[in-house]
Specification:
The chain is an all-alpha fold and 432 residues long. The protein folds into two domains: 256 residues, Ankyrin repeat-containing domain (Serine Threonine Protein Phosphatase 5, Tetratricopeptide repeat, Alpha Horseshoe), CATH 1.25.40; 155 residues. Helix 16 packs antiparallel against helix 17. The relative contact order is 0.08.
Length: 432
């Protein structure tokens, strides 16, 4: 619904809500399926997030209700008085759209909260489930602030909004559970669906494909699923609860994820095999270079010919570092090949070994190329600079290529393993 219609339609809609249940046709439900209208669903790069943090956006309820020139939340206004760069302009318009959508939700919730309980239930029940299913925490948060018992609603399958968020793996919605009262946490955690599944059983179900495919590789997918540590927010007694099939949450998880565990093991071992071969070749080459006396020795003193050359010192240090790092990489990859590959290993143990292996392999390749370049400099000196320039450029290309191909995986694994996890840094601000 366009923001220019809000002032004329909100009161009429709320009056009708006292008498009938709009179901999935309510304005709140319509807004709850518009992912692009809310910041939480925006896929912004680091650069875009920096721009977003700098672009101002000052909106008020009056702006939403009275501004007829803004357009609607699906089609934000394209006219801008400011002379700004194209991407900054896009971020600015997107931020205005997010603000308008949020203010529209606030306006609807604020007026609906003044209705009698039955009218408020008619308005809030379906939208809170639609927002939980589609992963829009802003709507769930505003509904919870206006009508606190909304998180205790249950749908036709017996699930509450947080259980729907768990089923569809919307972590931003589920993270709001840390901001509700302790009493409500117990009520939400104690709820069972029509098959006697509690929240821990539901998180044990296999995630939807669209959520699994957001992460590259079966091993990282398995790690992401293990990071859904719902047991931290529910009482310990529920960890042994059984559903209608007499299965505990752990039994459900093991059964649902046995194929993904096998795929993760195969993915890890393939990566370890490939990388260990490269690391072994590097170790062989740099070891041979280390025991070969570069330039020979002085016939009389038996000292190395290039002993006083700075390039020789660089060669020796780079070669030694390459040997040690490649050997470390081999040990890391061998430990991956001999691991047990139980479910919990995918959370920390295996990713840490792969990170260490890839990092030391990258160091060994870089230092090997530095040692090689130093050798050529010692041989040709400054007499043939064009050779040195060609070698330096080739080295830069090879290192850059390795970074381009493998560094994104290394960064993803490092962030996933050592970062805040899928829930990030949870806010402790209570939802009133």
């Amino acid at each position: 619904m366009g923001s220019y219609l809000v002032a004329n339609k909100v009161e009429q809609y709320l009056e009708l809500a006292k008498k009938k249940d709009f179901g999935l046709e309510s304005p709140l439900c319509s807004i709850a399926v518009m992912h692009s209208a809310f910041f939480s669903s925006s896929e912004l790069t680091l650069r875009d997030r920096l721009i977003d943090s700098c672009v101002p956006s000052t909106l008020s309820l009056e702006n939403v209700a009275n501004n007829s020139n803004r357009g609607d939340i699906e089609n934000p206004a394209n006219k801008s008085q400011a002379s700004i760069l194209p991407r900054v302009k896009q971020i600015h318009e997107m931020k205005l759209m997010h603000g308008e959508a949020l203010k529209l939700v606030e306006l609807l919730c604020m007026h609906a909260a003044d209705l009698d309980p039955s009218g408020a239930v008619n308005i809030f029940k379906h939208p809170v489930f639609v927002a939980g299913t589609h992963g829009i925490p802003e709507i769930v948060e505003k509904i919870r602030e206006s009508f606190p018992v909304a998180v205790q609603f249950y749908d036709n399958e017996g699930c509450n909004p947080f259980q729907r968020a768990v089923l569809f793996r919307h972590h931003k919605v589920f993270s709001l559970i840390s901001r509700i009262s302790h009493e409500q946490k117990l009520i939400v955690a104690d709820n069972m669906d029509n098959f006697s599944n509690k929240m821990l059983h539901l998180v044990g179900n296999l995630a939807p494909p669209d959520q699994l495919n957001r992460v590259y590789g079966a091993a990282l997918q398995m790690q992401r699923e293990l990071q859904w540590e719902v047991e931290k927010v529910v009482p310990n007694i529920y960890q042994d609860a059984r559903n209608i099939e007499r299965k505990t949450p752990r039994m459900v998880f093991t059964e649902e994820y046995k194929e993904l565990v096998k795929e993760g093991e195969r993915w890890m071992k393939d990566a370890a095999n490939s990388c260990s071969v490269v690391a072994a070749l590097i170790a062989t080459v740099v070891f041979a270079a280390a025991i070969t006396v570069l330039g020979g020795t002085n016939g009389d003193s038996k000292f190395l010919v290039f002993k006083s050359e700075k390039a020789f010192v660089i060669f020796a240090m780079s070669d030694a570092l390459s040997l040690f790092s490649s050997t470390t990489a081999i040990l890391m990859f061998l430990s991956m090949l001999t691991a047990r590959y139980v479910e919990d290993d995918f959370l920390q143990a295996l990713p840490k070994r792969l990170i260490m292996g890839l990092l030391t392999l990258f160091i060994s390749i870089t230092t090997m190329m530095i040692a090689f370049s130093s050798t050529l400099y010692l041989v040709f000196g400054e007499a043939k600079t064009w050779i040195l320039v060609c070698v330096a450029e080739s080295t830069r290309v090879l290192v850059t290529l390795f970074i381009y191909l493998q560094f994104p995986l290394l960064v993803d694994m490092f962030y996933s393993t050592y970062g805040h996890g899928i829930f990030g840094k949870r806010s402790e601000k209570p939802l009133y």
